[in-house]
Amino acid sequence: MNLVVNGDAEAGPGGTAEPVPTVTGWKVVQGAPALIDYSLGGGYPTPADPGPERRGSRFFSGGDSPRTALLQDVALPARGATGRAAVDAGRVRYAVTGWLGGYAAQEDGVRLSVEFRDSRGTPIALSVLGPVTAAERGGKTGLVERTAEAAVPPGARTARVLLVFTRTGSGTSNDGYADALSLTLSATGGRR
Amino acid sequence: MTVNRRDLLKAAGVAGALGAVWPLSVGLTPAQAREAAEQLGARYDPAPFTLGVASGDPQPSSVVLWTRLAPEPFAAEQPLPEVVEVEWTVAADPELRRVVARGKAPASATLGHSVHIPVTGLEAGRHYWYAFKALGRTSRVGRTRTAPLGNVSKVRFAALNCQAFHDGYYAAHRAVAREDVDFVVHLGDYIYEHGQVGGVPEEHVRDHDGPEVLTLADYRKRHALYKGDPSLREAHAAHPWFLTWDDHEVVNDYSGTGGGAPFMQRRAAAYQAWFEHMPHRDSFGGSALPDPEIHRVRKWGDLLELTVLDLRSYRSAQNLSDGTILGAEQKSWLKQGIDKAPDAWHVWANSIMLSQLRGRPGGSYMFTDQWDGFLAERKEVLGHVHASGLEDLVVITGDWHSAFVDDVRVDFDDTESPLVGTEFTAHSVTSGAYSADWNETNGPLMGKANPHLKYFEGNRYGYDVYEVTPERFSAHMRVIGDRRDPKSPVTTLTTFHVDRGEAGSYEDEGTKGSPAQYRRDA
Asked: Which domain of life is it from (chain A) (predicted)?
C-alpha cells in the first residue's frame, strides 16, 4: 500500500499551470505548486514524453516560485505485518519511489526525500531521490524513475516526506516535475 | 611524536613518496588509506567509534549526544549490518557509575550509521558524562553540560572557526578541550571541500584525502578525515557545542538557493554528511533532512541569549537590491526574536562578517559574500535592533582567518549613525590568513577606510574565549604559537571588553601593547 496520499497529483484543485494554494494530502510549506494536466501542452510534459507508464492525468510542478516545498507526515501502521512490533523487531523494509524530471536542457529540478523518525521526532533513517539533472534526462523534457530502499530502523513511528522544487536562473516557471510518488513497507523474514 | 611525523613527512617529500603515501585517491583500499593517514599523523579512536563522541545544543534539561560507527573511516560504505543497535548511558560521574539515563538507538546505514540522541530529563546547569556501546565495544567517555536556569553570575564559552586540515594541526582544539568553558560555538568552515593542495611538508603539514568532494560518499570521507585529528575529537568530547556553518561545508561562496539540479544534489549530499557528523538537534521545526534547521535561540539562564544564524541555506545571490542573506522566514524570525528579547547579553553566532569592510579609503567592499553583499537587509536588521531598543548585542563571527573588532552601526557609512553592538571576528583554527606583509600594509588601510573598525590582527591562529558576567562581556583572543605543532602552547594575545548597557568595546589596558596590524586606540 502506498503510504503517500495523493502522490500521483490526481486529487484536488489544479489542471493548469496556475499555482494552487492547497494540495490534497500535502502541506504547502513554501511557494505554491501547480498540478498540471499532461494534455496542457506549451512545453510541459505530455503523455508522449518520458514518464510513468500509468501516469494518470496530472503531475506536480513547482509553479512560479523559486522554491516550492510540499510536506507530508505519514504515521506508520500500528499493527499488522509491517506494524510497530515488526518494525521494532527489524523485520520491515521501505521503498521510496518517485518519477522526477524537468524541462529540456534546463536544470530546474525536484527532490523527493523521506525521513523516518522515532516517537520523539528524531531522524533515524533517510533516503533522498533527485533532483534529476538535465544530463540524466538526456536533455529532454520528461520524468525518470528514482527509487531507494532500506530497512525501517527499530523505533520508527513516522515518516516525513518532503518534495522540494527548485528553479534556477531568472525564469518565472519552476520546472521541476514529479509524479507517481510512493512509499511502501514490506515485511521480511527476519532481522537483516 | 611531532618530530617523528615531521621527519616522516620530510623523508616522504624528499623521496617523492607523498603521492603514494598521503593521498588517498590513488587506489588505496580504505584500510590502506587509513594506515597511510595514521602514519602521517591522523589517529582514530578504536573501532567502531573511530570518530569519537560529541554532545550539542545544551538546554536546561536536555542535550543531544552523537556518535557515528565507522570502523573504516575512509570507506564509502561501512562494513556493518544495515542497522546497528547503539546503547547510550548518561551518568552524573566520569566513571558512569551514577547512571541517570540510558537507552538504545538504531544506527542506520542510510545516515552513515550515525546516532543523534536527544537526552531529556536532566538537571539544569551541571556536568554529565556519557558513552556508547555497540557491537560489543564501548566508546570513550564524553563530558557535557546542561544550560542553567534563572540567575547566572558567569558564563564562559569558546568560539572556533575555519579549520583547514592541510593548513595545520588542531592545537587550538586541544587547548579548547582544556579550557574551563560551559560550551563551544563553531562558526563554520568545519571542513573544506576542495582537492589536494600539495606542498607537503614545506608549506602544508598534511593534505586532503583526494580531489574535490561532490557526493555523499565523498563528504563522509572528508568529515572522517578531519575527525582524524585527535584534538578535534577531544574538544568535542570535552564540551557541548552549538553549531552553524559557512560555505566550505558545501563549496566556496555558494548561495543555498537558485542553483541547478547538479548543485542541489551536491548540496543535499553535503548537508546530509554534515548532519551525520555533528551533534546537531534537528527536526523540531517545519523542515526535514537533508535540509537541517540550524537557526535557533538558546538561553544560558538569565545572563545570555544565544541566537544561532544560518547564513547559507536561504541566501540569494550577492549584490541584488532585494537580496537576502537570511531568507525571508529567518529574517522575520530574527526580528521577532529581537522584539521579545529578554534583558540579557544577546550573542549572535554569525558565520561571516556583519560589519562593513572596505579595502582602502574610497575603495570597494572587500568581499560581498559577507553581509556587505546584502546591504538593504543589513540596514533593515540593524535598524530594527536600534528601533526595538535592543541593548548589549555582541556578534561573534568567523570566516576571515584574522581577528577584527568592530563597532556595529546601523549605517556604517555614517559615523553619527547609532552604535548598536560589537562584532568580534575570531582568528581561524588553522585556515591560512594573508601574509604578514599584506597585513602590515593593509591593516592601517582598512582602519582608515572603516571608521567602525577598532582592531585587526592577521598573523596568528587560534580561537576566542568569551567571559560574560552581568556587568561585562570580555573577549579573550587565544592564539597558538605554531600551526605545525599539534601541541603548540596557547597564550592570550589581547582582551577586549564591552560594559553592560554601554554600546562599544575597549581593549584591556594590560594587553594594549600586544602585536596587531591595526589598533584605532593606539
From this structure: Bacteria
Using the Cβ of A192 and the Cβ atoms of chain B, whether some distance falls under 8 Å is answered with: yes
Stretch 242-261 of chain B: residues touching chain A, C-beta under 8 Å: 257-261
Per-residue pLDDT band at B39 (split at 50, 70, 90) = confident
pLDDT tens digit string along A56-88? 999 999 999 999 999 999 999 999 999 999 999
Q: What ipTM goes with this model?
A: 0.97
Domain interval for residue B331 = 155-519
- Please check whether residue B48 lies inside any domain of the structure: no
H or E stretch covering B19: helix B18-21
The amino acid present at A5, given as its one-letter code, is: V
> What are the counts of helices (DSSP H) followed by strands (DSSP E) for chain A?
1, 10
Do B188 and B108 reside in the same domain of the chain? Answer: no
CATH number for the domain formed by residue range(s) A27-187: 2.60.120.260
A–B: how many Cβ contacts below 8 A?
A: 112
Rg from Cα positions in chain B = 22
Mean pLDDT on B336-346: 97
Q: Would you say A122 and B283 are in contact if contact means Cβ atoms under 8 Å apart? A: yes
Q: How far is A191 from chain B (nearest CA, A)?
A: 9
Can you give the pLDDT of all 192 residues of chain A as single tens digits? 999 999 999 999 999 999 999 999 999 999 999 999 999 999 999 999 999 999 999 999 999 999 999 999 999 999 999 999 999 999 999 999 999 999 999 999 999 999 999 999 999 999 999 999 999 999 999 999 999 999 999 999 999 999 999 999 778 999 999 999 999 999 997 544
Is residue B150 one of the residues assigned to a domain?
Answer: no
Q: Is A94 left (phi over 0), alpha (psi -120 to 50) or beta?
A: beta
Please choose, from the candidates B204, B155, B157, B221, the residue with its C-alpha nearest in 3D space to the C-alpha of residue B184: B157
**HSE toward the beta carbon, residue B393, CA cutoff 13 A:** 28
Number of domains in chain B: 3
Residues B429 and B453 in one domain: yes
Under an 8 A CB cutoff, do B290 and A153 touch?
no
Chain A residues within 8 A of B258 when measuring between CB atoms: 66, 166-169
Domain residue limits, chain A: 27-187
Q: State whether B209 and B78 are in the same domain.
A: no
Contact B83 A71 (CB under 8 A): no
